[in-house]
Amino acid sequence: MKKKKLEELLKFMEEHGLVELEIKKPFYHIKLRKACSEELKPVPVFRPEAEIKKEQEKEEELENKRYHEIRSPIVGTFYRAPAPGAEPYVKEGDTIKKGQVLCIVEAMKVMNEIESDISGTVVKILVENGQPVEYNQPLFLIEPSD
Questions:
Q1: Alpha-carbon span 93 to 46, nearest angstrom
Q2: What angle do CA 30, 36, 38 make, to 5 degrees?
Q3: How far apart are CA 120 and CA 76, in angstroms?
Q4: Cβ atoms of residues 92 and 125 within 8 Å
Q5: Kind and range of the H or E element at 52?
Q6: Domain range list for the chain
Q7: Whole-structure pTM value
Q8: What confidence tens digit (pLDDT) does each residue in 27-63 have?
Q9: What is the architecture of the domain spanning 64-144?
Q10: How does 29-61 read in b/e, with b if 16+ C-beta sit within 10 Å?
């Protein structure tokens, strides 16, 4: 193989970021390997999903401390509106007053209106419409008004 061809192969390796190149032909076999001159970069450490989830829960807990939680007083089914197809009682961003109805939790065919115990702004609705809820499960995050 001529020097010019070898230089072309080295240039090709450089342009394409190749570390190794091997060519096999009937009359020759060439293998080029670039010396490792780059500093080895640390490989990210694998963290179990449970550990990541626990960290996220701690962050959410800190975030939620500044908000007031409206919790379900009973086990049942969460409904955002008084009837199917009706407008929801509240939406995220709505300003609410103490005693205002926020949702319904149906238990044993009885519709229980859940009222706010503070005035403020609805920051987040934590439950999807029609979803089952547990006793004391957070339903809303409210930013208290001054």
A1: 38
A2: 145
A3: 25
A4: yes
A5: helix 49-64
A6: 3-33, 64-144
A7: 0.56
A8: 778 888 877 665 656 666 666 777 777 777 766 665 6
A9: Beta Barrel (2.40)
A10: eeeeeeeeeeeeeeeeeeeeeeeeeeeeeeeee
